[in-house]
Design a protein that fits this description.
Layout (H helix, E strand, L loop, with lengths): L7 H7 L4 H13 L3 E6 L4 H9 L21 E6 L2 E3 L2 H17 L7 H7 L1
Antiparallel strand pairs: 1-2, 2-3
Length: about 120
């Protein structure tokens, strides 16, 4: 059991997504060995399109929808000494905690980070 807790900001973002995803993330923070937070959850088509235009997503929000638009996705970030970090090691440890939590909760996940970072 970890000593980490989701911030009120992360919990607020988490409330915008599907309950299964919420349960997985809440379990993951209990078992993780690195701290993490939630940076985004549900997105409107317009919000998604802005990310597409900035080349931060392959989904334009209109013709190609993001899982964020259905509330079936969250973006997570690892924390080290209270600051967000995006390195491979910390991100992988967050992924491990989330995948373990998903297995425990019997929730099938598609982890986008695997496609963009790890392979």
């Amino acid at each position: 059991m970890s000593d980490f807790k989701l911030s009120s900001r992360s919990l607020g973002i988490l409330e915008t997504v599907d309950e299964e995803i919420q349960r997985v993330v809440k379990r993951a923070i209990e078992i993780t060995i690195v701290d993490f937070g939630v940076s985004s959850g549900y997105r409107t088509a317009a919000e998604q399109h802005i990310l597409f235009e900035k080349k931060l997503s392959r989904c334009d929000g209109y013709e190609k929808l993001s899982h964020h638009q259905s509330g079936r996705a969250v973006d997570l970030f690892a924390c080290k000494k209270g600051s967000a970090v995006w390195d491979r090691e910390h991100s992988a440890l967050v992924a491990v905690a989330v995948m373990q939590a998903a297995t425990e909760k019997n929730v099938r996940l598609k982890w986008g980070g695997f496609f963009n970072v790890f392979f």
